[in-house]
Design a protein that fits this description.
By secondary structure, the chain is mostly beta strands. It has one domain: 6 Propeller (Neuraminidase). Helices cover 0% and strands 38% of the residues. It contains no helices and 27 strands. Strands 6, 7, 8, 9 and 10 form a 5-stranded antiparallel sheet that branches. Strands 1-27-26-25 form a 4-stranded antiparallel sheet, with no helix packed on it. The protein has a 4-stranded antiparallel sheet with strand order 2-3-4-5, with no helix packed on it.
C-alpha cells in the first residue's frame, strides 16, 4: 500500500525544527532513565494481511489485531493466528479505508470496531463477547458518520482512564480541509470524540457529563482542530493523552494533553499545520504540538504510538514511542518542562509502519502494513 494511507503523503526526512514548548507541559520526571541507553530490537510474532490496529481484552492473554480487509485475528503464543471476527463483506477497501480500529470495553464484554462501509462512511459498531468468543451476529451500530471524501477517516478507538470511549475522526478528507471541518464545532469530523457507548433510553450511546460543548455544538466533541488523528493513546500510568496528527504536505506533529487539563482543546488545524500558519484567521487558545518534523525526502505520515510502561526496556520508561509510515524508524520522545523534547532514534526500522500496540503488561508492538507484527524487546549493547 502506498504511503498515502493515513493522510497526506509528500517527500521528507526526519529532523529539523521542533515546535516551541507546549504550555501544558508542567510535569518533570525527577530522575528519568537515560533515554540514550535504550537498546531495542524487533521480535517478529506473526505475519498477517495488512494489520492496522491492536487491542487486548481484560483477563485474556491473546493479542487482537485488526486487518484492513475486515478481519480480527487473535494471536496467542506460538499458536497459529485465529480469525475471531470477519466483517469483510461490510468493509470498503480504498486507500485509507477498511477496518481501522478496535477496542474492548473495560469489562471485556464488548468489542468495538471502527470501519468504513461499502459507501465509504464511518461505522463504530459493537459486538458482544460471550465466554471469550466474539458473536458476529450481535453487531449494533453505535455511531455513523458520513464521509465526504475517501481519505482522512481516522479510526482510532480507545477506552480512556474514565471508562468512556474516545473516537478519532479525520477532517473529512480531500486536501486542505475544504469544508473547514477542523475548526467547526457543528461537525464530528476533525475531532476526538468522547461517548459512553452503551445505550440508554433507546439511544445508541450517551454523552458523558463533563464533555466541553453544549448549545450550538456537537456534544460528543472532546478535542478539535485535528486533521487526521490516525493514532492516539493514553499513558496508562499518568492518563496523559498523546496524539499523532497527520499533516498536510509539509509538517507532521505530535500533540499532547496532560491528564486533568481542560477538555475542548483546539489543536489548530486548518489554521495551522504544526506551528506554521496554513489558513488566515484568528485562533485564540490553540495548542501547539509538542513535536513536529518536516517532509524532506523520506518521511510522509506520523504514526502515533504509546508511552512505554513495560519492564523489558528500562531506559524507555516514560518515553513516547512513535514513528513515520514512510521512514519506518522507531523513535522515542521525552518531554521536559520549558525545554525542547528529547528525541532518540531507537534503531529498528519497520517497513510501512502503520500502527503500534500495547499489551496488558505495557510492552509495545509495531505493525507493518506489509504484514509483520513485531514486539519491541531489549537488545544487548
Amino acid at each position: 500500500m502506498s504511503a498515502t494511507f493515513t493522510g497526506a503523503c509528500s517527500t521528507g526526512g526526519h529532523g529539523g525544527p521542533t515546535s516551541p514548548p507546549n504550555p501544558l507541559i508542567t510535569k518533570v520526571t525527577s530522575s528519568p532513565p537515560n533515554l540514550d541507553e535504550a537498546r531495542v530490537r524487533l521480535q517478529q510474532i506473526a505475519v498477517l494481511e495488512q494489520p492496522l490496529a491492536m487491542a487486548v481484552r481484560p483477563g485474556d492473554p491473546a493479542l487482537y489485531v485488526a486487518e484492513k480487509s475486515g478481519r480480527v485475528v487473535a494471536l496467542q503464543g506460538s499458536a497459529e493466528p485465529q480469525v475471531v471476527l470477519d466483517i469483510s463483506d461490510e468493509v470498503s477497501l480504498g486507500g485509507e479505508q477498511g477496518l481501522l480500529g478496535l477496542a474492548f470495553s473495560p469489562g471485556g464484554d464488548f468489542l468495538y470496531v471502527d470501519y468504513t462501509d461499502t459507501n465509504g462512511d464511518t461505522h463504530v459498531s459493537e459486538f458482544e463477547v460471550h465466554h471469550g468468543e466474539i458473536d458476529a451476529s450481535t453487531e449494533r451500530l453505535v455511531l455513523f458518520v458520513g464521509q465526504p471524501f475517501s481519505n482522512h477517516n481516522g479510526g482510532q478507538l480507545v477506552f480512556g482512564p474514565d471508562g468512556d470511549l474516545y473516537i478519532g475522526l479525520g477532517d473529512g478528507g480531500s486536501a486542505g480541509d475544504p469544508m473547514d471541518n477542523g475548526q467547526s464545532l457543528q461537525t464530528l469530523l476533525g475531532k476526538i470524540l468522547r461517548i459512553s457507548p452503551r445505550p440508554a433510553e433507546g439511544d445508541p450511546y450517551t454523552v458523558p457529563d463533563g464533555n466541553p460543548f453544549a448549545d450550538g455544538a456537537s456534544r460528543e466533541i472532546w478535542d478539535y482542530g485535528l486533521r487526521n488523528p490516525w493514532r492516539f493513546s493514553f499513558d496508562r500510568l499518568t492518563g496523559d493523552l498523546w496524539i499523532g496528527d497527520v499533516g498536510q504536505n509539509a509538517w507532521e506533529e505530535v500533540d499532547f494533553a496532560p491528564a486533568g487539563s481542560t477538555s475542548g482543546l483546539n489543536f489548530g488545524w486548518d489554521l495551522f499545520e504544526g506551528t506554521h500558519p496554513f489558513e488566515p484567521g484568528a485562533a485564540a487558545k490553540t495548542v501547539p504540538p509538542v513535536y513536529e518534523y518536516p517532509h524532506n525526502g523520506s518521511t510522509c505520515v506520523v504514526t502515533g504510538g504509546y508511552v512505554y510502561r513495560g519492564k523489558d526496556i528500562p531506559a524507555l520508561e516514560g518515553s513516547y514511542v512513535f514513528g513515520d509510515f514512510c521512514l519506518g524508524e522507531l523513535e522515542a520522545l521525552r518531554l521536559i518542562a520549558g525545554q525542547e523534547p528529547q528525541v532518540v532514534d531507537l534503531g529498528p526500522v519497520v517497513e510501512n509502519l502503520a500502527s503500534f500496540g500495547e499489551d496488558a503488561n505495557g510492552e509495545l508492538y509495531a505493525l507493518s502494513l506489509s504484514g509483520p507484527v513485531y514486539r519491541l524487546v531489549a537488545a544487548s549493547s
